[in-house]
């Protein structure tokens, strides 16, 4: 049994996030831990994916586990930084480093991003961590951190297993969404069985960005870029047709294969700047006429914060449903135009651009709750303040 220190004026939070394909999970986690630090929490962010420039922000205590990503075989296959399949020894090194970090930091709160609703691939280290938490006295609070819309599951029994783990070990389920937009039960069939543990924080965005050093009329982004080549190609074709729209900035993403990037860069017209990454992406949205992107959580939140018109091309390959559900809801609200991935071309993108530019003026005040990062800090402090004396 491990002893935890008494909760002090700066509660300690250990936040675990594992990004595998895109960077959305890491970006959202980074916004949250930054808000926690600014709200007088002592935060350690544990990451398990490939390094991404700019995440986490400077000044955040960061422990990087030996990185893993998904291999060519999909989410069931994990590879290391060299692309080699991970073996049991590799997994043991990660597990031991995670447990050592937990023991060193002695957190008052542990937050696991996605698990047990997702990230089953890393249960080899998360289940031992949960066992260590259960053996600690006083026991820290254990929470899971979820985006607003979950991926539908095809394998029977997975939802029941998730509910069992939540009931047995977790104190709260933080849903980083606006319940007037979408509720957990809309994408998780057994949500009603854990309703007493679910708390909505609002959508998570970063701090309002500064004004950009330069401006573009059209900003195109493909998230991490691993699955964005088709979007970038169609945007380049559309930019050649709509030269009257002004300057375009197309952000291909850090994970787009280099041969693909070089081929696309050779096609870029003079009025288009094609780059891999822009640290000022959120700032660029504030002065853009239109955003063209996939419909990932963080990108949509950034677009809503900026008050920018948008064309959304939801990632839907391999049975993915999350982005389509989000994009279609925004389309019904008149906040975006959806362009399905399977109908993507230069011509269809031009049509979607025309429809988006014809949308009614967007409201000056955001329609959705966007202060989820600070609200998370408030909820954590409230949970700690309401703990029974026997648990302190």
Count of distinct structural domains: 2
Instruction: State the name of the first-level CATH class of the largest domain.
Output: Alpha Beta
How many helices does DSSP assign? Answer: 11
User: Rg from C-alpha positions?
Assistant: 21 Å
What is the CATH H-level superfamily of the largest domain? Glycogen Phosphorylase B
Low-confidence stretches: none
The CATH architecture of the largest domain would be: 3-Layer(aba) Sandwich
Q: Find the count of extended strands (DSSP E, 2+ residues).
A: 17
Overall average residue pLDDT: 92
Question: What is the terminal-to-terminal distance?
Answer: 16 Å
Shape summary: globular
Biggest sheet details = 7 strands, parallel
Strand order of the largest sheet: 4-3-2-7-9-10-11
| Beta-strand residue percentage | 15-25%
CATH topology (level 3) name of the largest domain: Rossmann fold
Short description:
The chain is α/β, with parallel strands linked by helices and 392 residues long.
